[in-house]
Amino acid sequence: MISRALQGEILHNLKQFPVVALLGPRQVGKTTLALGISRGARKPSVYLDLERPSDRARLSEPELYLRSQAGRLVILDEIQRVPELFPLLRSLVDERKRGGERGGHFLILGSASPELLRQSSESLAGRIASLELRPFSLFEVAGRAPAVRRDRLWLRGGFPDSFLAPDDMASWQWRDQFISTCLERDIPQLAPRIPSEQLRRFWTMLCHQQGALLNAASLASGLGLTGKTVSTYVDLFTGLFLVRQLRPWFRNIGKRLVKAPKIYVRDSGLLHGLLHIRDLDTLLGHPQCGPSWEGFVLENLLSVMPPGWQPWHFRTAAGAEIDLILENPPEKPIAIEIKRTIQPSISKGFHLGCADIGAGERYYVMPEGTAFALDATTTAISLMELMKRLQAKG
């Protein structure tokens, strides 16, 4: 079993907060991690899957049932299915706090963020810590064969059942089924009027724009929709942790800045599933190989980004461009260029962008190799080594 890097942070937050929310896409391992934590907890626990009729039946009188679980860690899985529980959780938390009890009353798991975060922020403000469980990162799976594991993680993505499948075909079949389930069951629970085939076409079109600026008008034209509808779809997939909108860095620097977000399908395995890429040889020869690698590197770097930091991209009308900026004011921003090559060279646009934003550390991410100076300001570095340096800043 692969240990999850987030486990220690969850345990820490359970000591500090009465409610901890563990969010992330379906099948990412939230339930497995929560049950593992409950087995090692100092107090007994109870687990309820709110998609299971028998467990939901226990909550036919939710106040009565949850009061009877005082002194236990109550794990509520797929909490977005019963959002009306949030006000009750607040009441119970406040009641127990008056009785002298502190953290670790409820661990809630959710795979859809918009409604979940809205409800929790309104009902549980000051009482809840929210954490996101991502698919496996390179840190979690590298082991003794980091290059082999890296390529497998890139091809298959980080969903546990996909990454750990016995072979590439089994992994691809799992992802194909996962995509169908998302489109035919999960999304209709949030947006019941959207046809699944239209959503599949939309998701696939996003794959072809991986790492590009979001062009809602182009997507709308290709799908026969309005730009507003396309924006709604993008927000829906973003809220399900399936798509990332990387926002543009913006300061008043006296230059025309591109203000559109860059768009990424977050898990590289799902990207490859939608593009029908089933093996590494096909991936290396595919037109989306470069953008796929960029998205893979981005998600791995963000998985170790210290709390309080923010990610951005940067582009000006004059051609200055930075793939990824990591910022933690008042420190100088970190500028990162991402290319899949072992013969790096710095573009003029990257130099201009670094000057525009006043970058401090500057990196050019390679697939592998020992770090070395490209020039007086920029270091060529492997993905794994840069992840280690970012983690150390936490």
List keywords for this structure.
16% strand, Rossmann fold, 46% helix, 2 domains, alpha/beta, 18 helices, five-stranded parallel β-sheet, globular
Quick recap:
By secondary structure, this protein is α/β, with parallel strands linked by helices.
Outline the secondary-structure elements.
Layout: H1 7-16, E1 19-23, H2 30-39, E2 45-49, H3 53-58, H4 62-68, E3 73-77, H5 85-98, E4 106-110, H6 113-123, E5 128-132, H7 138-141, H8 146-156, H9 160-163, H10 168-190, H11 196-208, H12 216-223, H13 227-239, E6 243-246, E7 262-265, H14 268-274, H15 280-284, H16 289-303, E8 310-315, E9 321-327, E10 334-338, H17 348-357, E11 362-366, E12 372-373, E13 378-382, H18 383-392
Parallel strand pairs: 1-4, 1-5, 2-3, 3-4, 10-11, 11-13
Antiparallel strand pairs: 6-7, 8-9, 9-10, 12-13
Helix pairs in contact: 8-14, 10-11, 10-14, 12-13
Number of helices: 18
Can you summarize the main beta sheet?
6 strands, mixed
Q: Widest sheet: strand order?
A: 8-9-10-11-13-12
* Beta-strand residue fraction: 15-25%
**Structural class, please?**
alpha/beta
Straight-line distance between termini? 26 Å
Average of per-residue pLDDT values: 92
Number of strands: 13
Helix content: 40-55%
Q: Shape from CA axes?
A: globular
Rg computed from alpha carbons, rounded to a whole number of angstroms = 22 Å
